[in-house]
Write a structure and sequence with these properties.
Elements lengths: L2 H15 L2 H8 L3 H15 L4 E3 L4 E3 L1 H26 L6 E7 L1 H18 L3 E7 L6 H4 L3 E5 L7 E7 L3 E5 L1 H7 L12 E5 L6 E3 L5 E3 L1 E6 L2 H9 L4 E5 H10 L3 E3 L10 E6 L6 H25 L6
Parallel strand pairs: 3-4, 3-5, 8-11, 8-12
Antiparallel strand pairs: 1-2, 5-14, 6-14, 7-12, 7-13, 9-10
Amino acid sequence: MSDKLFDMIVFARVVETGSLSGAARHLGLSLAVVSRTLARLEARLGVRLANRTTRTLSLTEEGSAFHVRCVRILADVDEAEIEATRGRDTASGLLRITSTFAFSRRRLAPLLQEFQSLHSGLRIHLQASDSLVNLVEGGYDLAVRFGALADSSMIARQLAPNVRAICGAPAYLDRRGRPATVDDLTEHDCIDYGDPPQGFWTLTDDTVMPIRCNLTCNDGELAHGWALQGAGLVLKSVWDTHGDIEAGRLEVVLPKLRLPAAPIHAVYPHSRHAAAKVRLCVEFLADRLRKEAASLARFTRLSDAF
């Protein structure tokens, strides 16, 4: 085992246990060896990784960033050994995934539970966030994202189509009328969301249409809830709204209007390309989501868009 890998293992255990003595007990080493190893690592890197006393230990900013990389590297080493002995058709180790709150709750959570049940040696951590996180810095294996991809340093695979539609509660539409043309939308209350909200909707021909917003927020689920309460029209993915459309709680307006598609992609760093857990998870999600996509069209009368 190289000194660098050994130092990473010791440092990771120090962080996990919260103390040098805890790491020493976990690794079966003396406290002196653990202390010298941490000091050697800091000297080689030229930065202080942790502030430590006899009772407490806290990571510096550099230590936190280095710890994320150490955990990722050590997990890759473990996975490489597993793949070498078990082949490339077994997902194992820790798989860290991030996606939006709404999609994580409505789609990814049950799918990932099913995927994990097929691979007993796999552990999954799903981080829900509507912010565009840095996969490498955050130590993520995989992200599930919507729309155009700006980072060409990542590998992206389209998992499924994604159609968006403008929806409103029947009570709101009964009260305010159903838009017959795009121009009619300017007379309606619209609900905008984003960080920050944009204040406009973009149509398929790249036409930017300002919208009148009495309610705005940074969370798509909040906007969805307001639409259900009859507060106005909202533009959302049919992945989020089809259940309410089917149940009659929401109604698609201007169903023939084509809005810019925002396909669902799996995005992962190049260094994860060969990892069995990533490859198998992407294949699983693509299979399940494409099957689900075929059933969504009937709720929105947008079948030709799928």
